[in-house]
Amino acid sequence: MPERALAVITGASSGIGEVFARQLAARGYDLLLSARREDLLRSLAGELSAAHHVSVEIFPADLAEDRPRAALAERIRTSPHFGLLVNNAGFGTKGLFHQAGLQDQDRMHRLHVLTPLVLSHAALGTLLTRTDADGRRGIINVSSVAGFEQSPSNVSYCATKTWLTSFTEGLAIELEIQRSPVKVQALCPGFTYSEFHDVLGMDRGPIPKQFWMSADFVVAESLRGFDRGQLIVIPGWRYKLLSAVIRAVPGPLMRRISAAAARRFRKPKQ
Ligand SMILES: NC(=O)c1ccc[n+]([C@@H]2O[C@H](COP(=O)([O-])OP(=O)(O)OC[C@H]3O[C@@H](n4cnc5c(N)ncnc54)[C@H](OP(=O)(O)O)[C@@H]3O)[C@@H](O)[C@H]2O)c1
Fold first, then answer.
1. Distance between Cα 112 and ligand 1 center (Å)
2. Is 138 a pocket residue for ligand 1 (Cβ < 6 Å)?
3. Does ligand 1 lie within 6 Å of residue 16's CB atom?
4. Ligand 1 near 235 CB (within 6 A)
5. pLDDT per residue over 182-235, tens digit each?
6. Crossing angle for the helix pair 115-127 and 66-78, to the nearest 10 degrees
7. pTM
8. 3, 10, 197, 245: which is deepest, by most CB within 10 A?
9. CA of 194 to the centre of ligand 1 (A)
10. Residue 10 Cα, ligand 1 centroid: separation in angstroms?
């Protein structure tokens, strides 16, 4: 029997991260689950270890903070059977750049950029020095279709997700030149049912129903893509099409479309 690999998942207390935990446990990975809400992590860990007979540990932490982030990186470096990192923790902010709180945007950059950077460094440093790397090992970075464009009231979010996708592409090139079996993926979902929009305080109503996906579908697509070694995974045909159009449209025109769409959907002032 091959040794079970350990999957480390950030943002595992709800939404896409929780579903990664469920689907990876069903695939036989041991888990290390991280997020701030310890009670949710604890009950998920109990449920998954009982259902799938895998080891599930929790790592409650605010990963926008330096010390807990460094401690999680150290756990990755020192776990003998570490195999997969899912950089998933994230959140959105509301309002134009100068109106949205600077502190929130600072934390967003730390969580969406610095945390994947530090954890990926620990993960690849570990995986690439081992000789037992197989097809189950690597990194999944949960980016977004928002990383393919810029949109008003979403500037830091789009910029951090653009970084995450680009970072993942860079890692893929480095793995390729080393002929490494370690895989990386940028998962780029569109609107997905989770706690994300509740935390943000965003009304889901104006977004047509056809554009919403379940977290189960998004994660299943990601893991199917991971099995095949797919670098960029965009779940759902609508978002595949939309992303292709966004990338084909010249930048100046895309920016005008984005501004016009924002004006159209902007709520009139009360
Ligand atoms: N939902 C969408 O439409 C959508 C679309 C594209 C991409 N995404 C991306 O998908 C990822 C997961 O989001 P989701 O949709 O599943 O939303 P969610 O249900 O709100 O989950 C976000 C997760 O991140 C954790 N988190 C937030 N701040 C944290 C911090 N400072 N330290 C540690 N953990 C933190 C939350 O846990 P705690 O609150 O317990 O810390 C939670 O587990 C995010 O990166 C998001 O940008 C979402």
1. 10
2. no
3. yes
4. no
5. 999 999 999 999 999 999 999 998 899 999 999 999 999 999 999 999 999 999
6. 10
7. 0.96
8. 10
9. 8
10. 9
Is 270 inside any structural domain?
A: no
Q: Burial, 114: exposed, middle or buried (Cβ in 10 Å; 0-12, 13-18, 19+)?
A: middle
User: Which one has a higher pLDDT value, 67 or 134?
Assistant: 67
- Is the C-beta atom of 243 inside 6 A of ligand 1? no
Buried b (16+ CB within 10 A) or exposed e, 197-219: beeeeeeeeeeeeeeebebeebb
Domain membership of residue 1 (yes or no) is: no
Q: Which residue has a Cα nearest atom 47 of ligand 1?
A: 90
What is the radius of gyration, based on Cα positions, of the chain?
A: 18
Contacts of 199 (CB under 8 A, 6+ apart): 91, 92
Quote the number of domains for the chain. Answer: 1
Q: Are 204 and 146 in contact (CB under 8 A)?
A: no
C-beta atoms surrounding 88 within 10 Å: 25
Question: Could you tell me the residue range of the domain that residue 216 belongs to?
Answer: 6-265
Residues acting as catalytic residues: 157
- Asked if 142 and 119 count as a contact pair (C-beta separation under 8 A), the reply is no
Which range of 127-136, 139-148, 197-206 scores highest in mean pLDDT? It is 139-148
Q: Is 36 helix (H, G, I), strand (E, B) or coil?
A: coil
What's 33's domain CATH number? 3.40.50.720
